[in-house]
Amino acid sequence: AQSVTQLGSHVSVSEGALVLLRCNYSSSVPPYLFWYVQYPNQGLQLLLKYTSAATLVKGINGFEAEFKKSETSFHLTKPSAHMSDAAEYFCAAPIIQGAQKLVFGQGTRLTINP
Amino acid sequence: ETGVTQSPTHLIKTRGQQVTLRCSSQSGHNTVSWYQQALGQGPQFIFQYYREEENGRGNFPPRFSGLQFPNYSSELNVNALELDDSALYLCASSPGAELSYNEQFFGPGTRLTVL
Fold it and tell me: How many Cβ atoms sit within 10 Å of the Cβ of residue B58?
C-alpha cells in the first residue's frame, strides 16, 4: 500500500491566490511527515516537517501544513502564491524496511499564473 | 559549509554499459542515501550507507551497488544498463540514519540517459 498519496499531479493558481497541495498518508506511517520542494534541474529542499510536536507546522517561504490524524492528511498551504513558488512539491514519510528510508508521493507540479 | 555535491551533472550511456555516479556528503554527515527519480515520478529509495556499511536497500536489482568511503563520500554503480535506468539519481546526506529527526540534504542530482 502506498504510504503517502498526493492528490492532483498538477495544480495551477493565480499569483496572490491560496495554494493548497494535498497529501494523505496511510495509517502504517510513523507520525513523521515531510514536504519537499524541487525547482527545475535542482535537488530537493526541505520545506517543513511534522514530528509530533505541534499539528500546525510552519516552514520556509511562507508555507505551512496541518497534520490531521482524523483525516490522515498533511496538506500544504500558502495564503498568497508568488511566481517563485512554481516548482514540484513532494510529500514524504520515513518508513523502516531494513534501513529507515523516505517514501515519496508522486509529486504535484505547481504552476503560478500571472 | 559545502553542501552535497554530485558528479557528473549529466551522463549518456548505451544499454549494457556500466556507470559510476559520485556524491560528496555534507561536512559532519555519516549517512548517505541514494534515490532514483524517473521522469514525472517521486524519488525511489535505492539504498543507504551508514559509516561505510550498507544499511538497507530498496527494490532494486543487485546490478545497483554502492560504496561509502572513510570520508563518507559515496559512489553508486550500475552494471548492465537498461533503458529504464534513465532517470535523475539523487544523493542525500544526513548526520545520522534516523530520518525522523535527521534532515536529509539532497544534492542536485545526476541525469543519466541510457540509449
Answer: 19
Mean pLDDT of A63-90: 95
**pLDDT above 70 as % of chain B:** 98
Write out chain B residues lying below 8 Å of A105, CB-based: 42
**Rounded mean pLDDT, B9-14:** 96
- DSSP character for A15? T
Quote the minimal CA–CA distance from B105 to chain A in Å. 7
Identify from A21, A45, A100, A108 which residue to disrupt to test chain B contact, counting B C-beta atoms within 10 A and taking the largest count: A100
Cβ atoms of B49 and B2 within 8 Å: the answer is: no
Report whether A44 contacts B90 (CB < 8 A): yes
Q: Which residue of A45, A99, A106 is in closest CB contact with B56?
A: A99
Average pLDDT over residues B65-89: 96
Query: Among the listed ranges A31-40, A97-106, B45-54, which one has the minimum average pLDDT value?
Result: A97-106
Paired residues of B94 in beta bridges: B31
Q: Over the Cα atoms of chain B, what is R_g?
A: 13
Residue A30: what are its φ and ψ, rounded to 5°?
-60, 160
CA distance B15 to chain A (A): 24
% of residues, chain A, pLDDT over 90: 70
Only one residue has cell 561509502, namely B68
Q: What three-state secondary structure class fits B83?
A: helix
Residue A11 banded pLDDT, cuts 50, 70, 90: very high
